[in-house]
Amino acid sequence: MASESRLRIVLADDHRVFAQSLELLLRAQRSVKMVHAYFSGGELLASDRTPLADVVLLDIRLPDIDGLECVEILRARHPRLAFLLMSGLPNHSTVARAAKLGVNGFVTKCCSFAELMKAIRAVSQGRSYYDLSIRSLSREVDAGVLGDQLSRRELEILRAVTQGCTSRQIAAELSISPRTVEKHRQNIRIKTRKTRAAQLAAHAVAQGLV
After folding, report:
1. Is-contact 112 125, C-beta < 8 A?
2. Judging by DSSP bridges, how do beta strands 7-12 and 83-87 pair with one another?
3. At CA 157, angle to CA 71 and CA 193, rounded to 5?
4. Which CATH architecture has domain 152-206?
5. pLDDT tens for residues 127-155?
6. Which of 131, 130, 72 shows the shortest CA–CA distance to 101?
7. d(Cα 103, Cα 200) in Å, to the nearest integer?
8. N or C: which end of the chain has fewer CB within 10 A?
């Protein structure tokens, strides 16, 4: 847990102008000791500065490894790290994944810089911070509201699951890797809030998806 002054921050965002501008704003704060900006998940994971940070500030959408995967990898390596996520267009499935990983904070990119600093200070001190938009999505997720429709590929995989196909069989049929199938199945489970194949099948029938 960091003291309220002299924060060490690393950030990752593939929009270079945004990341570099944010880096300059953060460096100008008297309470900030160190800021380093990276433009991909790979750079963030490879940096020897990342483990030293009081707050890891990262975008959900990165070109190589998405922000939530970075959280999962870094948390396994460095359990003490605090994570603050940013997103331009957050959705229910993203908020659900973030909650499952236990991220410390989540803000939208339309928040003010003052609110961002408030969020950074909160997570650096071991507290959580979610802005109003994220809290609203989180409440809907908790209430079981499905905000995301399944993609065409997810519908294909859901139909195959209801027919009793395994991930390997689905992968062969769709000419994709079993790992990709598993990732789609995870997204389907998050969006439908159904964790078992039988539950998914019943949900698909009830919703007229198959």
Report:
1. no
2. unpaired
3. 55
4. Orthogonal Bundle (1.10)
5. 999 988 888 777 766 655 544 567 778 88
6. 72
7. 27
8. N
Does pLDDT of 113 surpass 90?
A: yes
Output the six-digit token pair for 62: 């990165």
How far does the chain reach from its first CA to its final CA, in angstroms? 50
Residue 82 in contact with residue 56, Cβ under 8 Å?
A: yes
Could you please report the per-residue DSSP string of the chain? ---SSSEEEEEE-S-HHHHHHHHHHHHT-TTEEEEEEESSHHHHHH-SSGGG-SEEEEES--SSS-HHHHHHHHHHH-TT--EEEEESS--HHHHHHHHHHT-SEEEETTS-HHHHHHHHHHHHTT--EE-HHHHHHHHHHHTT---SPPPHHHHHHHHHHHTT--HHHHHHHHTS-HHHHHHHHHHHHHHHT--SHHHHHHHHHHTT--
Fold of 7-142: Rossmann fold (3.40.50)
What pLDDT shows up at residue 147?
41
Tokens 């071991």 found at:
126
- Can you read off the two tokens belonging to residue 138? 């989180």
Q: Where are the domains of the chain?
A: 7-142, 152-206
The yes-or-no verdict on residue 207 having pLDDT over 60 is no
pLDDT for position 164? 80
